[in-house]
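Methods — Computational structure assignment.
A single polypeptide chain was analysed. Its primary sequence is given first, followed by the predicted tertiary structure written as structure tokens.
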Amino acid sequence: MRRCYPWLLFGLSVTLLLNGCGSTEPTTRVPVKTPVPEVQTEEHTETTLTPAMMVARAQDIWQSTGDVNARNGYLLDAAQGFLANDAPAKASQISYMLRGHIQLPEQQNRYQLLLVELYGNDPRVGSAQRLELLQSISAFDPATKARKFALMATDYARLGQWLAAADALLNSDDANPEYVAKAWQWVNQASAQQLQDSARFTKLPAYVSLRQLILEHGFEPDLLRQQLAQYQRVFRNHPLVTHWPNNLSNLEQLSQTNREHIAVMLPLSGRLQVTGMAIKEGILAAYFNDTSAMNATRIPQLQFIDTNDTTADELITAAADADWIIGPLLKENVDALLPKLSPQHRILTLNRPEATLPALADSEQQQELLPASFSSQIYYALAPEDEASQLAERVFSRGRRSPVLVASENTLHQRMQDAFLTRWQQLTSGLAASQHSAPTLVTYSDNNTLREGILDALDVAQSKERIKEIQSFADDELYNMARNRRDIDAVVVFTSPEQTELVNPVIEASISPFGGVTVPVFATSRSIDYAQSRNQWRDLENLHFLDMPWVLPDNPAPELAAQTEALWPQRPTPLQRLFAFGVDAYNLLPRINSMAWLPQLQYEGLTGALSVNQHNEIVRSLPEAVVTQERVQVLAE
């Protein structure tokens, strides 16, 4: 009787669960087909059981035969059925009762898979923990193995490990068309650094080779078609060729669009005249560099249109004969102009509309729109929110998990902070709650509240108060030093260049030297002005920031940089960035068709590595630099 006592308790638990299931089970449950074990006949029969019926069958088998393995099999099936029917609480009850009672290895594998699925949206359990559990499963059953790798793919993707995610998904089923398409998408999301480690993924050589081929020849449609044809011959039996990406067909339509007449819409008078003129000068610099290499019969005509006090109808009339439009710059002008464009107008706006066009549902829709409309409206903006979002990715990739965010009350800085927080929440969604903490926010209005906010966020103010309290009990003078919080591993600032020079020394002075750990400070280009003061680099020591290649060391266009330095030796940093904006806007025109059709492509411009996303927006990827020994050093990716 002693040996049976635990099983009696277990049977009672199953009975209670059965009663609970029976009282709430609706008649619309999804049925699950389960083979019925042989009892008195040699013939195999099959019936349809709901999850609640499986629980009842498990109870019957346990009471009549005492077969723990058969009972556990039905309970595992029931738990899986409850999950399929969106009843995770009942599946969790079964998993709890089965804990410690699984004997067969294959059932143990199924039980662990059940736990992973139950933990899938549990904030207390991160993707790394789920992956560790999945990797411990040595499943030989094809169905269990496929399920294991599919779950691994999901968690790798949550962690941004795109190649590992693609490889796991293909290990689940490398011939499934949906999996092939998803794996191809993930391979294209992998960074250049991740691609360097691609050789260890046995399912990915063909995928990586195809991506590299597109990157090398994507801006040469004729050569690309030849290379793709050869690729299809070499990998003719590969699933990626069998389920060929739709956008790699019809490449003959990717010929360059006409650029005989380019209309540029900019504010060339009024309060934004200086801004508009800096962009105009960049466009002209790119234009003259372009025409110097052209045949005289192919030189495009440039037309500049002042948008100041000009209506959308007047802009349309002025650009009636244009093959391409660059601009307008102001968001309100973009919003007013876009609805009035005719289908033959192609436009590269210099800002984003309030509501961008919906993403195309699939590549077949794109093929129908080629060649005239699929790239007819492209949005190119120097959006500060984009930099903030990218900064979140960079901080996260550096292994930082508990940042302090410092932002002024300025509307722009608050928008950047919100963009950072949104992206940070996405990045940390795959981590357990114990592996990261919500960013500590510091908002300030002036220099005094800035200093107080930083000291309070780093816990330095509290440390000083504790020192004072201890000092009050001592007769002799105490030698002391305030200490900061130990869980803070990064400080992110959204401040003006002048304020950044104040913030960085305050943070540096607030970090206790006893920990032996440097807490880096991160910023965007909006916090950097290269001509701010003679001592700025000393005050910005160890500051990490994002910025355009054009203003960083190792400028990608040294001859143009020398010319502009001679023409405008005292040009402020913001205007230098706008000049580069104009250069890239012009240089993008002959490349936009390919970039919109092949999202893998990047154009290495003066404003960053440029690509086109599914919303027809130009995405900028900026390099990271750090101030060290009063010099700016660009960091390798």
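Note: The two ends are 67 Å apart (CA to CA).
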